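Q: What residues go here?
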């Protein structure tokens, strides 16, 4: 899909009702809740974070950037995710969090990103985070400057590859609550994208495909 084609679908995307948990569930590990009752959130008091689903042109084709996190002692070590991170007190709102973290992690200035819209928030039980995703656009091919303290690799995912159903497969993984489990995943150029990132991608994919119809 060319970037020009993708941007033509933005008005339709903006008019849609997001599929939310229905789309999240398609890529959720078995037994993982995609949302919780409000009373549970009040009890668990999850930390808040935001991520940016950044779409941009590369050689005329639409792409989305993902990052591979560094290896460290923690739940999300070496996982593939969107640029993003924990909300800080100085952030005006969650959109500001996503923009700030995108700059800090991959070096794209906030002024260069057109934020299209928020997508459905998603709860991550292992780390007790509530994540707020945003769709953003760059009009020109970016020059990424990954932060070596946080990012080990930039993954540029062609939109046409992402939208192809053949990229989805069940993969054996080790999770925080089960040692060996088959989980639905996106296989992007040899990279396994699963968990919350895959669930967020699932909503984006369904939304784009609905707009294309």
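A:
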């Amino acid at each position: 899909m060319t970037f020009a084609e993708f941007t033509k679908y933005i008005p339709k995307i903006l008019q849609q009702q997001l599929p939310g948990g229905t789309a999240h569930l398609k890529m959720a590990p078995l037994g993982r809740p995609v949302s919780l009752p409000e009373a549970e959130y009040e009890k668990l008091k999850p930390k808040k974070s935001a991520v940016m689903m950044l779409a941009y042109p590369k050689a005329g084709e639409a792409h989305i950037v993902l990052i591979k996190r560094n290896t460290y002692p923690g739940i999300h070590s070496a996982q593939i995710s969107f640029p993003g991170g924990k909300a800080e007190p100085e952030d005006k709102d969650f959109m500001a969090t996503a923009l700030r973290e995108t700059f800090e992690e991959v070096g794209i200035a906030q002024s260069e990103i057109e934020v299209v819209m928020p997508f459905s928030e998603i709860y991550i039980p292992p780390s007790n985070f509530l994540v707020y995703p945003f769709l953003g656009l760059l009009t020109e091919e970016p020059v990424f400057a990954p932060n070596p303290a946080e990012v080990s690799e930039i993954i540029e995912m062609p939109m046409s590859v992402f939208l192809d159903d053949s990229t989805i497969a069940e993969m054996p993984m080790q999770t925080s609550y089960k040692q060996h489990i088959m989980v639905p995943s996106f296989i992007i150029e040899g990279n396994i994208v699963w968990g919350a990132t895959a669930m967020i991608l699932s909503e984006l994919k369904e939304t784009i495909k609905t707009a294309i119809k």
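A: Context that may help when evaluating the design: The helical segments are 3-8, 10-15, 21-26, 38-44, 94-106, 159-163, 195-212. The first strand starts at residue 47 and ends at 58.
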